[in-house]
Design brief:
The chain has three domains: 54 residues, no CATH class; 72 residues, Herpes Virus-1; 156 residues, Alpha Horseshoe (Serine Threonine Protein Phosphatase 5, Tetratricopeptide repeat). Strand 1 and strand 2 form a beta hairpin. The strands form two sheets. It has a two-stranded antiparallel ribbon. The chain has a two-stranded antiparallel ribbon with strand order 3-4. About 2% of the residues have low confidence. Helix 6 crosses helix 7, helix 7 packs antiparallel against helix 8 and helix 12 crosses helix 13. With 309 residues, the protein is mostly helical. The chain contains 13 helices and four strands.
């Protein structure tokens, strides 16, 4: 592959280019230390030292930039910043709490100056958010900074919850899924997951309907409800959910959830969840493989029965 590394005026690659080197290229460069002349070895050392200096400087700038943008109260980057009368930005939730704790209806002590200031309406400071995003996008503030990672997580949760509050079915499903497994900053809470799956089901979200059916059939986050669970699973399966088809197949194959063993029904739903015709494909590979194995087993058993007859 052609080497596209740029060089500075002194003939050395830039720090940015060195940072992009693959492990293979780095090993190749290091081998030159023993193969090239004394001058080449000296240039290599200068090159690596230059990169380390640039890296140290970039880390310091990134850390200082983060510190300057933290909320004075929470000490975190702000996802909903508001500008107050004392000239500082604060996280809305923090400043609203600060306002509420003040006995004075019109004034409050500034968290920064400790002087009294007017209680002005809390309006979002969009310029702060734009500035922060610019610094992150241009790597002035590194995306790997712990404060940035937490900021991105909080920002994701805030936007998701705003969409969910507007009855967006996809957002309700995503929120429920986060609570079900405890991801993206949400603690594991099956009861809350069921709550959001139910809301999304009422909005006719097929994936949410299948997820709610599974919770009902297995008693996850809700008491076990076999009749309603089978009904929800059938609804989702008929609307193209391979996950729901799997649930019905296993219930019929095992004679569980108040259903008798029904090989014909089990075979029908196993076929549907494995033949690729379902529009909603959310069944994980492991369960799909399990369904294929069971389908083959049931098919072989039926063929043997026919042969014996």
């Amino acid at each position: 592959m052609e080497d596209t590394t740029e060089e500075n005026e002194d003939g050395l690659p830039t720090a940015t280019d060195i940072a992009k080197w693959s492990a293979t290229k780095l090993r190749t460069e290091c081998r030159k230390l023993s193969l090239e002349t004394q001058g080449a070895r000296r240039d290599m050392i200068r090159r690596l030292l230059k990169y380390l200096q640039e890296e140290k400087k970039a880390k310091k700038i990134s850390a200082n930039s983060v510190t300057a943008l933290l909320c004075p109260i929470s000490k975190e980057l702000m996802v909903d910043p508001v500008f107050c009368h004392d000239g500082y930005n604060y996280e809305r939730e923090c400043m609203q709490g600060w306002y509420d704790e003040s006995p004075d209806q019109n004034k409050v002590k500034s968290p920064m100056t400790l002087l009294m200031m007017k209680k002005i309406p809390l309006a979002t400071n969009n310029s702060y958010t734009a500035h922060l995003e610019y610094l992150i996008d241009n790597n002035v503030i590194r995306a790997t900074e712990p404060a940035v990672v937490e900021y991105k997580s909080k920002q994701y949760r805030m936007k998701l919850e705003q969409r969910a509050s507007n009855n967006n079915a996809a957002a309700l499903l995503e929120l429920g899924s986060n609570y079900m497994v405890g991801t993206n900053g949400y603690g594991k809470n099956p009861k809350k997951a069921v709550k959001f799956f139910t809301k999304a089901t009422l909005l006719e979200n097929v994936v949410a309907t299948a997820s709610l059916a599974e919770c009902m059939l297995k008693g996850i986050g809700i008491e076990q409800r076999n009749v309603e669970g089978i009904m929800r699973a059938t609804e989702a399966a008929c609307n193209g959910s391979d996950h729901a088809c799997y649930l019905l197949a296993m219930a019929n194959a095992n004679g569980s959830n108040d259903l008798p063993v029904n090989v014909r029904e089990a075979t029908k739903w196993l076929t549907k969840c494995t033949d690729g015709t379902c529009k909603s494909k959310t069944l994980v590979a492991e369960l799909k493989n399990e369904a294929r194995v069971l389908l083959q087993k049931l098919t072989d058993q039926q063929q043997n029965i026919v042969a014996l007859d």
